[in-house]
Amino acid sequence: MSEEKTSLFRSEPMALTQLYIPLEIAPQTIAELGELGLMQFNDLNPKVNEFQRTFVNEIKRLNDLERKLRFLISQADKAAVTLQPVDPLTPYARTRSQLEIDQLDTQLGELEARIEQMNTSHVSLNKRFLELTELRHVLRETAVFFQIAESRADEIAVGGNTREDSGLLANQQRESMDPGASGGHTINIGFVAGVIPRAKMGIFERILFRALRGNLFMNHAEIQELIIDPVSDETVTKNVFIVFAHGKELLNKIKKISESMGATLYPVDEHPDKRRESALEVMARIEDLRHVLDNTKAARRAELSRVAEHLNHWSVIIEKEKAIHHQMNKMSYDVNRKALISEGWCPKASIGAIQYSLRAVTERTGTTIPPLLNELPTTRTPPTSQRVNKITNAFQIIVDAYGVAKYGEVNPGLFTIITFPFLFAVMFGDFGHGILVTIFAIWVVTNEKTLAKKKWGEMWVILFGGRYIILLMGIFSIFTGLVYNDMFSQSMTLMSSEYTFQYHNDSGKWIGSKTSTYGFGVDPAWQTSDNFLIFANSYKMKMSIIIGVLHMAFGMCLQVFNHLHFRKPMYIILEFVPQILFFMSLFGYLVFLIFFKWLTYYENTSEAPGLLNTLIYMVLSPGSIAMPLFPGQGPLQVFLVFIAFISIPWMLLGKPLYELQEHKRTVGAGYAPTSHGTEQAAMLAEQGEQAHEESQEDDHGGHGGKFEFSDVMMHQMIHTIEFTLSGISNTASYLRLWALSLAHAQLSDVLWEMVLLPALTSANAFAIVIGFYMWFTMTVSILICMEGMSAFLHALRLHWVEFQSKFYGGTGTQFLPFSFQAIFEDQEE
């Protein structure tokens, strides 16, 4: 098979292939194709539910294995166990046999059970440890409470019965009662002690005071030690509290309120000796429990460390197995032949590589029945595949964001490589700023292997992906900066000026006279002139119109390649010719006038005609010219206006009438009428009714329709009106090149004059350092980052709307091959 030529001018030639795979080597074959990443499998079971497909049980099992792995990886992260990184494309991560998957399932199940058992034990031990820790704090703090409360037992007993406002929130008692009270001296006083979250302490106090009408005495203290919640593993802050009250009913009410507020109550003996014994016992039990907890953590960490080097490997294996079985579910299962039958798209140039991979699978597995690959003839529209590299990929992404090219359509990405950074540089043109951008881009490009691994956020991913766009934008900005003779808003005297100046007494000004043409770019003498802004406006405005007209005319010319490729040569006459005649007779003539005026010398510039008025009155009043540029201009303009007006009905009627004629010819040849009209007439004549039906089903989902001349006419009318009106709006849209270039230059001049220049003229070293720092910071942040982003978006709009709309449909479908590399890259994002 001869190797197909590929280029970025249009999409790669694609082939529809049919693949017969013996069931016993199906996973290995698909895995090999996944490593190759050149085959897009079509779904041959579109009407079958996902849960009714052949390999749904295998996918469920793999999902369960993936769940177990996620659990183990999360446990390893909690235990601070470092996982060994793995490259998903290493040979270690090859596809596994069913026996190996069974063994992995058993191993993961046993490991999950052991870790869950350890976790259960750890949680129960932590709960017990938490209870003992809280009890230790309760015993320690309540000992202080009891010592103070014993000396004031009479006051508490009386205060609770005689004064309603002598409770917890009375100001005088809050200041005098620091901790505690006791029920030891009065028989009818009891107490409740426990621990409550610190955030609920204030609410708890108010609820108790209102519920018991102040008949209580309460004290609390903060626990300074950090307490870990055994369920959530989060640090919580708690307080120890003790509440004294009269009678069992009040005590029961206190207990219910405490439990409803999330407090934990602990039994505390009122005798000091017993409390001391309890405290010593609790301390001993805490030490024993801490030792058991440490051993449990060590055992769990050792278990996870033992498999840490395999977890990422297993994860890659399972992800690949899932992807393989998902592709197998798209295939047709031949029960009698024990084989899978698949269809898929691949580049014609890659068929040899795919066949080589299939032979490698056959040799590696030792099977006697190899997989077979056949190329199928078809009239279906293939997906679009653009062969790109790391340099052209970012430009192709810009084009695909507008729309994926139809198969065989001219790809704007090839021209965008030059035109996009150039239009950006026209708006951003500054020699100094371009150097800064280029230095950054060179640093990223030269260190791309190291920087590709950095995780510095989404913005960094965008900048790194567009590093070659930034590099070209910087280089083109250096070029346009030299053309503008602009470096940080200052002119550069690369060559001596071609202007000589003489002082005029009548005007009191130095007037420059041009002796010859400056070698390259703008003469530096203009920078200090009073009329520099007027000159720059006129120069950049006309330059923007010239660039815009040439850019759009080039886009129209690319239609010719599309019409020839899709075998529609008549569309060149019926669509391209009237469009280019209309556009060039008006706006091409405007470009001609700009160059003619530039080449004409005027002693008095006020005698020079205004080109905008000339263009307006060319249409409103053909033939009458107030200030002609050259002899015969009036008749020429009448002829051009006539050509423009003739082009409108040409665009409007030519294509619909041609399609009507072709439709009648198709019906007369015996074919059924279609909604395609003439676009498929040639195909029908060559391939017959069967090809026609296949194309109908693929393009329209099986729903054909009658040819309606009124619909075609309406569509063409909309297209004609849109083109004629957009000719003016799109040309005016390129004036953004002038506007943004002017704004960039003026803002740069403001920063120089208002920030850096005063610091330089101050002759103060500290002021110079501070001024330079502020100037450089504002230059990078405002002029390079913000203005650069603005220029980028405007260049993007000029390509999408003004350029690509002239020839590019963008109605294709993206070629998405089955590729392990793409799967894992998507997961990382």
From TrEMBL:
Originating organism: Boothiomyces macroporosus
Q: Name one GO biological process term.
A: vacuolar acidification
UniProt-recorded name of the protein: V-type proton ATPase subunit a
Please list where the region (Disordered) is annotated: 682-702
Against InterPro entries, the record matches this protein to: V-ATPase_116kDa_su, V-type_ATPase_116kDa_su_euka
What is the gene name?
Answer: VPH1
Coiled-coil stretches: 48-128
Family to which the UniProt record says this protein belongs: Belongs to the V-ATPase 116 kDa subunit family.
Keywords assigned by UniProt, alphabetized = Coiled coil, Hydrogen ion transport, Ion transport, Membrane, Transmembrane, Transmembrane helix, Transport
Tagged with keyword Coiled coil: yes
Bias (Basic and acidic residues) ranges:
689-702
Checking Pfam families in the record gives: V_ATPase_I
Q: How does it sit in the membrane?
A: Multi-pass membrane protein
Q: What does this protein do?
A: Essential component of the vacuolar proton pump (V-ATPase), a multimeric enzyme that catalyzes the translocation of protons across the membranes. Required for assembly and activity of the V-ATPase.
**GO MF assignments:** ATPase binding; proton-transporting ATPase activity, rotational mechanism
Q: Can you supply one Gene Ontology CC term for this chain's record? A: vacuolar proton-transporting V-type ATPase, V0 domain
Major localization class:
membrane
| Compartment(s) where it occurs, according to its Swiss-Prot or TrEMBL record | Membrane
For this protein, the parts annotated as crossing the membrane are 422-445, 465-485, 545-564, 576-599, 611-630, 636-654, 765-786
